[in-house]
Amino acid sequence: HLIVEISALLMFLGVLCSNVPITGDSFLLLALLLGLCSILPQSLISLQKSEIDISTLVILAALVAAFEGERADAALVVFLFNLSKAPSFTRNTLSRSYTLFFLVLR
Q: Which of 28, 48, 89, 101 would be 14's cystine partner, CB 3.0–4.6 Å?
């Protein structure tokens, strides 16, 4: 649960600092890496069983987006996936997170 909150803060700072390329990108990459660290173990377990699960697909999508230069999108995908796995996840939490992030982007 703490990972989700820290990722949200890093993404928020990354979007706020988007006019400063190195700083904004750094916050977004930190949010992405932190989020990926929580998904990676489950993905590795699935890959050892020769299975591809949703965590593997999320990692793949996030990495492709990051390499394409869409770091905010990559961080958002990982954040939302981790948020959906959080124990206190509710539909209202997801709705507030979407709203906050997209209001900041505009």
A: 28
Identify the burial level of 49 via C-beta atoms within 10 angstroms of its C-beta, where 0-12 means exposed, 13-18 middle and 19 or more buried.
exposed
Alpha-carbon distance of 77 to 42, in angstroms, equals: 17
Residues whose CB is less than 8 angstroms from the CB of residue 85 and which lie 6 or more positions away in sequence, other chains included: none
Give the integer Cα–Cα distance in Å for 23 and 31: 13
C-beta of residue 106 within 8 angstroms of C-beta of residue 64: no
For residue 20, what is the DSSP state?
Answer: S
Contact 62, 78 (CB under 8 A): yes
Q: Are 102 and 10 in contact (CB under 8 A)?
A: no
pLDDT tens-digit profile, the chain (106 residues)? 678 888 888 888 888 887 877 788 888 899 999 999 989 999 999 999 999 999 999 999 999 999 998 988 999 999 889 888 877 655 555 566 666 666 665 5
